[in-house]
Design brief:
0% strand; mainly alpha; 98 residues; single chain; globular
Length: 98
C-alpha cells in the first residue's frame, strides 16, 4: 500500500515511482500513517478498522489517499478512512450518479 510507508520503505520510493509512472503520489509525504505499522491499516475484519479510521480522520491528505484507492481499485486495507466495503459503496454511488 502506497499510503502506508512500511510498504513504501520495503519497495523503496524510487522503485515504487517506476512501477506507478505518471501518478502524483506527493501527498504521501504528509500522510498521518507515515511511519506507523502498516498492519494497523489491514485489520482482520471491518469491525477492527476503528484504529486506522481514527488515524485517517485527522489526516491532511485523507481525500487524496481515498481517491487513489478508488481509482486504483485497492481491494485491501483502510485507505482515506474507508474500508474495502465502504469504497465499493462509494464506487457504486458514483456509477449511479454519473
Amino acid at each position: 500500500m502506497i499510503c502506508h510507508t512500511g510498504l513504501v520503505d520495503a519497495f523503496g520510493t524510487r522503485g515504487l515511482e517506476e512501477v506507478i509512472q505518471g501518478v502524483n503520489l506527493s501527498w504521501r509525504k504528509n500522510a498521518s500513517c507515515r511511519g506507523l505499522d502498516p498492519a494497523i491499516f489491514y485489520p482482520a475484519s471491518e469491525e477492527d478498522a476503528a484504529e486506522a479510521k481514527a488515524i485517517c480522520a485527522g489526516c491532511l491528505v485523507r481525500e487524496a489517499c481515498l481517491e487513489y484507492a478508488l481509482v486504483n481499485r485497492e481491494r485491501d486495507g483502510v485507505w482515506g478512512g474507508a474500508t474495502e466495503k465502504e469504497r465499493r459503496r462509494i464506487l457504486r454511488h458514483r456509477r449511479k450518479t454519473a
